[in-house]
Amino acid sequence: MAQEHKLEIFRGRWKFKSNTQKIWGVLVFLTLVTAVEVILGIMKPSSLVHSHFLGMKLLNWIFLILTIVKAYYIAWDFMHLRDEKSSLRRTIVWTPVFLISYLVFILLFEADYIYNVLSDGFISWNF
Length: 127
Known about the structure:
mainly alpha, flat, two-stranded antiparallel sheet, 2 domains, about 5% strand, two-stranded antiparallel ribbon
């Protein structure tokens, strides 16, 4: 017996009558998020470009967050993660989070070591 797809998005706050309406609703949502990214990329407001947060421009943080929102929503809705058990959802989400965090740690640690060797060691900057 085939399961019925849930016809709501945003955790049940917006409900649709058919799958076709839901697909159009999701398309509109993803299009709006992408349009905001494109508009910000074209305009590049100086208030977002010249202000920094945790060593990165605020505009880049906005791009990063909106991209994660789109990726999360695509996985949640189109890959039907919302219908899976919470342990599978956690496995899918936390594994890349852990691996990316580990990779960033290694890259920063090694970059600091290389910088210290090249600035204080016998090897000079010859790039």
